[in-house]
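Feature request disguised as a bug report, sorry. It would help if multi-protein outputs had a clear separator. Right now it looks like this:
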Amino acid sequence: MNTDTHTQNDALEGPILPTFLRYMMPSLLGLIAMTSASLVDGMFIGNYEGVTALAAVNLIIPITTLLFGVSMMISIGGSVRGGKYLGEKNTTAASAIFSKTLMFMVVYGLIVIALGLMFEAEIFAILGADKTLFPVMSEYYRIIFPFLFFQFIVIQIYFFIRLDGFPNLAALGLAIGAVVNISLDYLFIAFFGWGLTGAALATGISEVISLSVMLFYFVHPKRKIFFGLRQKNWREVFRAADNGISEFINEVSGALIAFIFNWMLIQRAGVTGVAAITLVNYLLFIGFMAYFAISDSIQVIISQNFGARNPQRIRAFLRTAGIMIGGVSAGIISLLIFGSESLIGLFIDVERDSDTLALALEFVAYIWPVFIFAGFTMLISGYLTAVHLPFQSALVASCRSLIMPAGFLILLYMLLSDYRFVAAISAAEAISFVLAITLYLFHTPAKVIREQA
């Protein structure tokens, strides 16, 4: 039986664990597929093109992450707002916010891509790249940048498809795109030898394929949310952005921290340092995608139960998600402590790039404690977003992804002459976790629903 064709709203009425898994597993599998595609990109680039190409791609990440942050803010904020409407049985309002955020994304994508291509050299300079790296960066940038348009649309549709009760279709779109990306990476890089051009083309084409799969949603007879071209009250898009502000802060802060990291490592270790932190970022990416899948699925469920005023189910879903995060964290920490050398060896030739390997292993030793705290902090931040507390959610997000990391990085960089300043990321996560727990205790499900009365 196809679980996507149900008529009951499981988020409001279904049993806790099966409902949580029904939303979470497709999201997790889809995001794992997307993550695996990025990891395979890194493997092909590192093994076939070397650490310089790997570093060049990493230097571009801050600008793409910044632009992606706006897309996430509008998409998640809009879906949370839409979830509240669905909880209130108001499908007309849910359809309206879907339509407006989708049209916004189309206009936004066209504008930022045009500007990004016009000011390529200026952007590279701002990112701190040496001019000798400009040609290598440009080879990847000029191809990947136009394809960002499809990525923006994919992420917006993805969240609303899941909200409407079709998580399998959303995950399938990501999974097929990931398989295409991996296949084309091999064909373009390993077989044809197209280098970074091939990597960018593989990623871009995979986004087009993902979007093509997700477009089947628009002809599904069971959907509750519909697209309409004529819309009013466009201010609601900005109110939706308020709900998604924490996700924007996460993405933008990640871009800024990556910029700071790259600058510091270029000063102390050159391209080798940037390549080493790129490898560590791939390992972090695995865990963070699992956390994101859990906390993001919880947002969809909680936003509907918030609209239906059901604090008991919200608590039960949070408890289930917390247990899941604890298990994921234990597994990732064990993997990093005992298997990081083997994992890093997948991305580079360890004999040819032995200096990069040694530096990456040193970074792992300072960064693995991040996974003690990060998942729970992300869960609470997602909960605060789902119950329409954007300020509190943004406070947690800005603390864990910008204020604390930037502050500790600068402080430790000034105090220490070696690479121990990397431990700033772990210290920032610990403090942010304390803040998140404190805010949750002040805004428990029963309290926020009582305050809405």
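(second protein starts here, but nothing in the output says so)
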Amino acid sequence: MNDQQLLRYSRHILLDDIGIEGQEKLLAAHALVIGAGGLGSPVALYLASAGVGRITLVDHDTVDLTNLQRQILHTTARIGQSKAVSGKETLAQINPDVEVRTVCDRADAASLANLISDASVVLDCTDNFKTRHAINQACVSARVPLVSGAAIRMDGQVAVFDPRSGKTPCYACLFPPDQQFEEVQCSTMGVFAPLVGIIGTVQAAEALKLIMGIGESLANRLLMLDARNMEWTSIRTTRSSDCPVCADAQH
């Protein structure tokens, strides 16, 4: 690290859990952030400010006036602009040393395999089950840890799925792809603005911990937030022996 970096990250370096070694791990890492909306905004902001060396922002959508109530990566002046490109502009203003790549296409199975191949951690900030399952499948195949977040109305949840150990559940263990789940989206159900900030910030914290190898991650737990009453609930999760995605990895 140069003198400017030592100064910029000094409050991290002062922490016994992080120090210079931990900060250097962040600088060498690549975070893949899929979704540059409500969850992706705080995720990307904190990853960049914390010094993650490379960030790939994936989002096929453009900035809309209705986004600005909660999607803090974007501004009124950028309405109509690609969310990924808008996000890159914001991150450059916060930390110009971070290399930010933009992908302005929808994440699908083919593109995910390529995007995840050199990622240190993947952050799922999307809002539909089809994409979530595709991300999970790609992470299990590439053995890359996944930090998943969701938020709707006044309720949110965060989980970590880490296929590196071969012992923790994957997203499909909790939400089997062959089961029917109601698709609920902000455009029809609404979402409390600070909720996505809270959930996204927890996602960022978990990703940073995974990169540096500190503390205990949320693997084997589903953390849920009732923001109406500001109550957190933590549920233990287990691997499914007949999971169609990760069961083969158990043997």
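Even a blank line would do. Unrelated, but nice: The beta strands are 30-34, 54-58, 99-103, 121-124, 146-152, 155-161, 221-226, 231-236.
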